[in-house]
């Protein structure tokens, strides 16, 4: 009986933003029902955030853009937090092959990470919204399903699969935020050399000493820290290199499980 009670969850207990994402919300009985919709509000919010960032986003700004009062919006979306959740949900609607791909699990993981990174690049504000729970909305759960697909044929239990999904998603988020910050800096007028530190390489070589920074010193002097001698870099893109090491680690883990059998 206790187990049954634990599983008897009620849909009406879902937070408002999540309920809206699943189409479980009740449409307002009053207000500009025919002229306004949740989708219209969310799309306008995304457009503002894409162009100006989350700092410029407010319910009053969206209402002004749509030609309605702020209170009209609250009849459809109860709070700004709900709006942010629905914005994330909207841009997480990513096209992905539904049929089983012929690519091996390694390539599937690469594809998944690149898809996630593309969301951060297309919508720079995405990573500015704090994570407050596991994915609970339809499109974000679809992303989890896509991530789990990379582990479908691997000898892993469900907890191992979810840990790998968290690892890949976390790396994609980190890469996406770093890339977003770099792009923002460039758009603001900062040079690539300033971002990489190359513009300050000569000054750093005078300031950084072997005594104070024993391990950084030789790396800095070689030019690797500021990519001074880029032609000598045989590793390629830093983000791709990191992803390959993660995949190598997963493969090593699979091999260790195989040996224990």
UniProtKB/TrEMBL annotation:
Pfam families in the record: TetR_C_1, TetR_N
Key words of the record: DNA-binding, Transcription, Transcription regulation
UniProt keyword Transferase present: no
Domain (HTH tetR-type) ranges: 35-95
DNA-binding region, residues: 58-77
PROSITE patterns in the record: HTH_TETR_2
The organism's place on the tree of life at top rank: Bacteria
Protein name stated in the entry: HTH-type transcriptional repressor
């Amino acid at each position: 009986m206790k187990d049954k009670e634990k599983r008897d969850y009620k849909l009406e207990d879902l937070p408002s933003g999540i309920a809206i994402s699943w189409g479980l919300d009740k449409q307002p009985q009053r207000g500009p029902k025919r002229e306004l919709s949740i989708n219209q509000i969310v799309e306008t919010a995304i457009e503002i955030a894409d162009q100006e960032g989350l700092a410029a986003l407010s319910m009053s700004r969206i209402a002004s853009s749509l030609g309605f009062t702020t209170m009209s919006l609250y009849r459809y979306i109860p709070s700004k937090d709900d709006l942010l959740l629905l914005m994330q949900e909207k841009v997480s609607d990513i096209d992905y092959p539904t049929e089983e791909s012929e690519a091996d699990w390694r390539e599937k993981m690469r594809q998944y990470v690149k898809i996630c990174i593309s969301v951060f690049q297309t919508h720079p504000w995405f990573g500015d919204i704090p994570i407050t729970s596991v994915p609970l909305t339809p499109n974000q759960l679809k992303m989890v399903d896509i991530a789990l697909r990379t582990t479908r044929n691997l000898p892993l239990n469900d907890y191992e699969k979810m840990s790998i999904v968290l690892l890949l998603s976390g790396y994609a988020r980190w890469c996406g935020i770093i890339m977003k910050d770099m792009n923002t800096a460039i758009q603001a007028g900062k040079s690539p050399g300033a971002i990489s530190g190359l513009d300050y390489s000569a000054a750093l070589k005078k300031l950084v000493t072997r005594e104070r920074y024993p391990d950084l010193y030789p790396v800095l002097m070689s030019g690797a820290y500021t990519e001074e001698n880029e032609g000598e870099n045989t590793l390629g893109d830093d983000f791709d290199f990191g992803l390959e090491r993660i995949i190598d680690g997963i493969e090593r883990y699979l091999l260790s499980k195989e040996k224990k059998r």
